[in-house]
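Retro notes, item 3 of 5
We never archived the inputs for the nicotinamide-adenine-dinucleotide complex last cycle. Fixing that now. Sequence and ligand:
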Amino acid sequence: MTRVQVHDKAGRELLGEIAVAQRDDVNRAVSTAREAFAAWREVPVVERARHFFRYADALERRREELALSVSRENGKTLADARAEVRRGIEAVEFAAGMPSLMMGDALSDVARGIDSISLRHPVGVCAGITPFNFPAMIPLWMFPIALAAGNTFVLKPSPQTPLTPELLHAIAGECGFPPGIFNVVHGGGETAESLIEHPDVAAVSFVGSSNAARHVQERAVRAHKRVQALGGAKNYLVVMPDAADSATCDAVISAAFGGAGQRCLAGSVLVAVGAAGDALAPMLVDAAAKLRLGRGTADGVEIGPVVSDDALARINGYVERAVNGGARLLLGPRAVPEGGAFAAPVIFDRVDPSSELARDEIFGPVLAIVRAGTLDEAIAVANRSRYGNASSIFTRDGGSARTFASRIEVGMVGINVGIAAPMAFFPFGGVKDSIFGDLRCHGKDAVAFYTQQRVVVSRWPS
Ligand code: NAD
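Structure as it came back at the time:
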């Protein structure tokens, strides 16, 4: 069996290793989940829910250990990692509400002497395939809700950040989850494919880049499975002239450079309307130049390393091509710490809205400022994107905010909020190439995804 080493992304120390699952290992995990399903689905939903009260409590007690694990294997700052774990725990708390969430509808006398009810049943074995950038939160969007609804689960986390998911699995075991209901296999695309193709996997949840998401959705649909595949993003932050102030600057800095730009909600294009650009650009440059790079676990650090040398090369490639192509660099790369793949914040101004800088998901700390004359023009720039995850407007004018919220083509809209992340009781996901499949993660969408509806029509002759 191939083993893969996992290193601290800042100092490159060895943190642990994982065994890559071969097809036989995947088959074993799926049959374990399938066998466990028969008994687990019969456990009353209130008892299933109790596991998640205990689990949320255990995660809360071990939040610091989980955050440290995230920070070390992903590279993000401890503050970001703590926030990530908190959002993940909220999804577990949501799952603990499953008795109400799974309730169906009832109507008596739909015809003479006939009543009708709709019920939600689990779908079977569910698979989850998750990315590197939220190794705690994104698995927690999936398996707790699927399990609480009576399904069993096989998780395949990113091979770049597999240790936190292992810890989540170990804590589930310590909380008394029945054996076999929650399984983890490791590996990359090939392992994921064996899972997707397995005939006993009924539903596939995927979060990652758009090309992989499209591929996963196509394969799953061909095999007649349920699938939700969340893809990549390029999120536009529109700033109106009435909001070009320090609060907006802080929000843009955090959206563009937080998590080293490796968030699916990263605000990587600022569309400055009218005078907003001239007012905001110097403030942004000043603030970004001061951001402290370093090991995510160190005090005061604001940007950790990106996930790999390959990711760094991709980011630097975008910057170099833009500079060589004559793009206007406001803040250029600077000296970075040693020991990890560090990328310093970069800002370009007056970026061509059709250039790769304004269109591609760079997934690094690179902010492109695009200038627009009007709100209509700004919305048009954003709506030309192939992606439609999130977008925000900064304004003090209700009319502009309302127009933006109704016309912007994304799944998550921010109004004076840079990172428009819905909490666990709302659905998370976008439109266009940011999602393949209809139902999003967490919220009622997830309950619908992990359950199948059955309508019972009954007559009791007297
Ligand atoms: P990735 O697509 O490289 O990998 C994601 C997962 O898919 C991993 O587990 C990987 O092993 C697996 N995988 C890779 N190729 C596959 C294939 N052909 N078939 C099946 N599985 C495959 O993504 P990443 O680099 O880990 O994460 C970053 C990406 O995830 C970015 O594009 C980011 O926008 C996206 N993301 C999206 C959301 C969202 O909510 N839309 C959230 C987080 C991250």
